[in-house]
Design a protein that fits this description.
Blueprint lengths: L1 H24 L8 E4 L3 E5 L5 E3 L14 E7 L8 E6 L3 E7 L2 E8 L10 E6 L6 E8 L11 E4 L5 H13 L10
Antiparallel strand pairs: 1-10, 2-3, 2-4, 4-9, 5-8, 5-10, 6-7, 6-9
Amino acid sequence: MKRTLRFCLATAFLFVCVGLLAFLHQFTVLEGNWTYLEWEQSSVVSADGTQRPFAPMAGEPALTEGDYFRFTLSLPQRSEMGSFLVFEITDAQTNIFLDGKNIYAAASLAQENTANLGQVQLPLPAGNGEELIMEVRPLSAPMGLFPPLLRMTAAPTDAKGNIAYGIITAFLPDPWRWHWL
C-alpha cells in the first residue's frame, strides 16, 4: 500500500511540475509579430563632426559637450503598410533619418519617480533595405535604456511581445553567449 501511495504521489508531483512548466512557457514565447533589430554601426559624433566607433553592448560611453550618439542599420523588408518602428526614449533628443530624410525628431525629459522610459510607435512605409540612422543626444547621463532597442511590428499595442522579450533576456540564459564553455 505504501509503495503504491509513493508511486502515485511521485507521479502527481511530476504532472504538477510539467503543468507548471507548460504554464510558464507561454510567458516566454513570441508569436512572430515582433522583429528585433540590431545596430550595424554605432559611433560617437563630436561637435566638429568626427566619428569614433564604439561597441554599444559594452555600455554607454562618456560624452563631452556637443557630442551625440549615431546608430545605423538597414531595415528588413516590409511588404505592407502598417509596419511600426517601436522604441523607448526618455531623457534624450532623438532624430531618425530614413535614407537621409528626417522622419522623426523629438526630445523627452524623464518625469520624477518614473520608470524612465517613454515609448515611440513610428509608422514606416513599405520598403526593403533602407538605411535607418538614429541620432541620440542624451539630456542627462546615463540614459534609461542603452543602446536604444528597436523593433518592428504590425501591432505595436500588443504587449505580449514586449513582456516575453523582457522575460527571455532578463531571466533565461542565452546559449549563444556561452562561448567560454
